[in-house]
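Q: Okay, next protein. This is DUF3180 domain-containing protein from Gordonia liuliyuniae. I've checked the sequence twice, so it should be correct. Can you predict the 3D structure?
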Amino acid sequence: MTARRPDPDGEDERLGITKVRDLVLIAVIAGVALWILIRYNYGAFPSLPWPAGVFLYLLAAIEFATGFIVRARVAGRDIGRARGQLHPIAAARVMVLGKASAILGAIAAGGWAGVLVFLMTNGLLDAARADRPAAIVGAVGGVLLAAAALWLEHCCRAPDDPDGDRDASDAAPA
């Protein structure tokens, strides 16, 4: 049996908050990949309908609203197993949903941006001009989904307990 080395940060394999730089990296990779794909295969794709990215707006709205609900429950310390409370497992699931949605939003924003870059550089094609609105709707929807997901993750964080240190010192024998 091998001994585990302690983590220098003091955290063991915990799920952390999504970093914006990671999402930007994901978006850039998705954008380059989609730009390459559409650059060499644009003629094989059907025209892009503008409502193609609208689903991202719907997801962003749902996650944004859910963030307010979770935030109110966390702030009111209304987390527990009793009826009407936010179950801790549900809070963890919402946190994971936020993380996954942030990644999906970054992929969508980067991918649609890659398509948009291609369409903007090919302004002579009527088909490229007709596809621009769909790419804009999709890219903005991806950014909104990533932002809403980051908000949802932020709302799932437990508030710092500033009274915790004072309570511990009061309980200590004098």
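A: Here is a summary of the prediction. The longest helix spans residues 88-121. The chain has one domain: 20-158.
Q: Noted. On to the next one.
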